[in-house]
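Record format v2
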Amino acid sequence: MTKTLTIDGKTIPFQDGQTIIEAATAAGVYIPHLCHHPEFTPHGSCKLCSVKVNGRVCSACTFPAAEGQDVINNSQELNDDRQKITQMLFVEGNHFCPSCEKTGNCQLQAVAYHLNMLDDHFPLFFHNRNVDASHSDVLIDHNRCIFCTLCVRASIEQDGKNVFAIAGRGINKHLAVNSATGLLKDSDLDKNDKAAHICPTGAILIKRTGYQVPIGQRLYDHQEIDAVSLAHETEQRHGE
Amino acid sequence: MANKIKVATTSLAGCFGCHMSFLDIDERLVTLVEHVQFDRSPLTDIEHCSSDCDIGLIEGGVCNSENVHTLREFRKQCKILVAVGACAINGGLPAMRNFIPLEECLAEAYLHGIGVENAHVPNDEELPLLLDKVRPIHEVVKIDYFLPGCPPSADVFWKFLTDLLAGSQPKLDYELVHFD
Ligand code: SF4
Ligand code: SF4
Ligand code: FES
């Protein structure tokens, strides 16, 4: 007998060991997320994947699927919360989309569009963060980092390196680079590393590749992130 | 004429790009002015809002003392106040000066910049004082609606205004929402 749970009333099968988001993705149900990536150990930090499981709010990317769970995902209440979370991510960093190479292909922006986020709601921090352009092929713009740790995980889990870490607390939290000088050029990072390509925002960019796709043909210009994400992530699962 | 909707517009710390984009509704302007009358606006040169404006469209963030006064006048005189474009919503590119102390900005522009002659920081008392930081307008007054985009497309203006004129809650569909 296949085990099942329900998401928004729809019955979904799952296998033991799957998280709620894994079961949902396999069944073609999109749960908004930023720090989750099917190839890496869950981190559970962005809280965008918050769902109600039997009435309690849980992170779908870390919470194990279990028989008979009643999961609420696509409700007005949860999407309002997700919008507020996304607005907090925007005001905490410095996101000037018109001058960002990632615009149109950025997951943070696409999630905002998906949630019909039209403004930032909160006062902006305007906290000064640096740009590290020292590496010959890869650029870090810390202003756009949302601390999802995907680059940290990709470096350790796939590249077999240990280039990134999150350091500091509160307003001083930042992405740290593991090198004697703290600069990317003195780290082990290579432009072909998974860690150099995993960033959901415009914080880690490959140099000399920006603005090559014209407006109108970018990833999220005509397709919402739910469709894009399901297409990619189901593909990744089959490719395993 | 008497029951036309009164629309006021202004550009604070903006580039007038949002106004240009608004004008890109092209021939639909003719339909619009059947229902709408422009009050204070760079399009009319009227200097102050009448007390009974229905809709105020604000382009640009707040970078100096005059911007603050203008914004407050709009809030006071307009029933519905709308933040138009990236700069009104999050400060936009002008807010990129927020990471450099004001004194250094002025020195770079007026004292040490390339090609500067008769170096001095403009200090005529007619000039509004610069704020320490460029701020989005929702940090200064209450805003009722937001039209994102740099600039929002003509279709965004059209959809928003026609929704309002029809008496319905404005709704921007996916293709109309962009931050760039
Ligand atoms: S990282 Fe994304 S949200 Fe941030 S400025 Fe770039 S495009 Fe905009
Ligand atoms: S640099 Fe990108 S991938 Fe790394 S933590 Fe920041 S947002 Fe996440
Ligand atoms: S995707 Fe689950 S917490 Fe970020």
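Residues 88 and 225 of chain A are 19 Å apart (CA to CA).
Chain A touches chain B at residues 90, 94-100, 103-104, 109, 112-114, 116, 118-121, 123-124, 126, 128, 215, 222, 224 (CB under 8 Å).
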